[in-house]
Amino acid sequence: MNTNQLIDKILDKWAVKIICFVIAIFIYIFYQSSIYEKKVLIVPLQIAENGASVAVGDIPRSASIMIKAKKEDITAIHVADITAVVNLDNIVEPGNYQVPVRLSLSEPVLAMDSLEVRVVPEKIDVKVENKILKYVEIEPSIVGEVAKGYKIDSVSVNPSTVDVYGSESLVNATKSIPTTRVNVSNAEKSFTVEAEYQPVNKLIKIGNTGPYRVTVSIVQNVIEKMITEIPVTVLHLSDSLTISSEIPEISVKVKGNELYLDKFVPSKNFACINCREITEPGTYELSVVYTVPGGMIMEEKEVETITIIVEKKTESPDKLENEETELTEAAV
């Protein structure tokens, strides 16, 4: 059969042949659609960051997997059979990149015939920064109030620092890592407890996750307080003399434990003047002598000296009358 005969044979009843060919295609498509099904799975998108770079910013956390397979196979395919990974291990310079999404299928899925798998999106835009490590302080999170009359003198943590690593911008912005809460409510003594770290950013990794030993040193609270309206006691004044001038009440500033000062009441001899050397009437300037109990420090004295006027004591008429009566009775 020569070429002309072949062409004539092909063109013979060509319309019928084209119709048959189209029908065959439709039959094939119908058959394929009858034995194959489609399925969409949403799988977590993993970021591989085992190299020098780390992703920053918003990154999709999942990917859509379009699956086409035989009816008997597609029902056996589950999310656990597919892993979607964006690999940054080979990126060494910071910048913006388009990184493909790589799929890994389980062995049973790979063994299936006529399997079609497609991921959406096929690539994602990723901003990467250099991965760095830095040591920052561990900051104890103190809550509550110590008992009245006490205060926190110091708080220490062992270890005092921890290594954090992640993207350069996030790590440099991290100044400290807080602990879980350490309650000091109504505490009167120093104590040590164990605390964990408080996660502040999931994109930052912590080297030593604890526990950490937090020591809280508690001491008595020392305050300053003004004590007012303190009477001045006169000591050793002769029975024949009297003070005619007014002796003012005085004030002092003292320092001591808060609980002690809140209850403190000056004794009778807290502030005194000594008149032992006075034998005659007159005007005298005497030093005020303060008796400060232990546990208290005198900070300021409002008055150092007091001026008094001393006079001869005069006997009352009733007393003179009594004396005269006694003399008369004695004479009789």
Describe this structure in words.
- With 332 residues, this protein is an alpha+beta fold.
- Helix content is 20%, strand content 47%.
- It has helices spanning 3-11, 14-35, 71-74, 107-110, 168-173, 258-263, 317-331, and strands at 36-48, 53-56, 62-70, 82-87, 95-100, 102-105, 116-120, 123-143, 150-158, 161-167, 176-183, 191-195, 205-206, 212-220, 222-230, 233-235, 241-243, 250-257, 271-274, 282-287, 289-290, 296-301, 305-312.
- Strands 2, 5, 8, 10, 11 and 13 form a 6-stranded mixed beta sheet that branches. Strands 6-4-1-3-7 form a 5-stranded mixed beta sheet.
- The radius of gyration is 49 Å and the shape is rod-shaped.
Summed up, what is this model?
By secondary structure, the protein is an alpha+beta fold. The protein has 7 helices and 23 strands.
List the keywords.
332 residues, 20% helix, alpha+beta, six-stranded mixed β-sheet, 47% strand
Summarize the topology.
Layout (H helix, E strand, L loop, with lengths): L2 H9 L2 H22 E13 L4 E4 L5 E9 H4 L7 E6 L7 E6 L1 E4 L1 H4 L5 E5 L2 E21 L6 E9 L2 E7 H6 L2 E8 L7 E5 L9 E2 L5 E9 L1 E9 L2 E3 L5 E3 L6 E8 H6 L7 E4 L7 E6 L1 E2 L5 E6 L3 E8 L4 H15 L1
Parallel strand pairs: 1-4, 8-11, 16-19
Antiparallel strand pairs: 1-3, 2-8, 3-7, 4-6, 5-8, 8-10, 9-14, 10-13, 12-14, 15-18, 17-23, 18-22, 19-21, 20-23
Largest sheet: 6 strands, mixed
Care to count the β-strands?
A: 23
Binned, the helix content reads 10-25%
Structural class: alpha+beta
Taking all Cα atoms into account, the compactness measure Rg is 49 Å
* Outline type: rod-shaped
Strand content: over 45%
Span between termini: 192 Å
Mean of all residue-level pLDDT scores: 84
H-E string: HHEEEHEEEHEEEEHEEEEEEEEHEEEEEH
Number of helices: 7
User: Which stretches are low in confidence, meaning pLDDT under 50 for 5 or more residues running?
Assistant: 327-332
